[in-house]
Write a structure and sequence with these properties.
Order of helices and strands: EEEEEHHHHH
Distance between the termini: 44 Å
Strand content: 15-25%
Number of helices: 5
Radius of gyration: 16 Å
Shape: globular
Structural class: alpha+beta
Number of domains: 2
Largest sheet: 5 strands, mixed, barrel
Oligomer: single chain
Helix content: 25-40%
Length: 175
């Protein structure tokens, strides 16, 4: 299957392979194995980094939810998200919020689009509290959990067992 998505998490599987999670437009949160990705001459070398938006070719698993990543092409590296700690913290918070409210292998085009717009904004402009509050408001609206008089992050947290702990530090740093 072909998909477009943002790399939201990665960790070692073996000495040479990685498990990579994607937030895709077509299939929601997808977990893949990138075989040999940790080898120096791997075709994946330098192309599996957090927040990268890619076009993917994935072979579905016969059993379970861990699919095989066959090919990818990086569309946007979003290197601006690494220009300072606050940018990276804000981007991580957006990703963790989306991951919190999503189910694996369930299409979520609106949420994937919201994540892409949020990360693209942070790639271009400095993080600020207005951007974070807007992201939370949009997310609560898409999820149908907006409640009059209640801050969107509190509504999300009330329905999903809390919000990622990075929010406290992020909002303190943004003033």
């Amino acid at each position: 299957m072909k998909a477009r998505g943002t790399l939201i998490r990665r960790f070692p599987l073996t000495e040479t392979s990685l498990i990579v999670h994607w937030c895709t437009h077509e299939n929601g949160i997808v977990k893949t194995v990138a075989k040999g990705a940790r080898r120096p001459k791997s075709p994946f070398a330098g192309r599996l980094d957090l927040f990268y938006h890619c076009e993917l070719e994935i072979h579905p698993a016969k059993e379970g939810d861990l699919h095989l990543l066959k090919e990818l092409r990086v569309d946007r590296a979003r290197l601006g998200l690494r220009r300072n700690y606050v940018q990276t913290l804000a981007a991580s918070y957006f990703v963790k919020l989306i991951d919190l409210v999503s189910e694996d292998d369930t299409p979520l085009a609106d949420l994937a689009d919201l994540l892409d717009r949020g990360l693209d904004y942070l790639d271009e402009k400095d993080a600020d509290s207005r951007a974070v509050l807007h992201f939370e408001k949009q997310l609560a609206g898409f999820l149908g959990v907006s409640e009059p008089g209640i801050e969107p992050y509190r509504s999300i947290g009330g329905h999903f067992g809390g919000v990622p702990p990075q929010r406290v530090e992020l909002m303190e740093r943004l003033g």
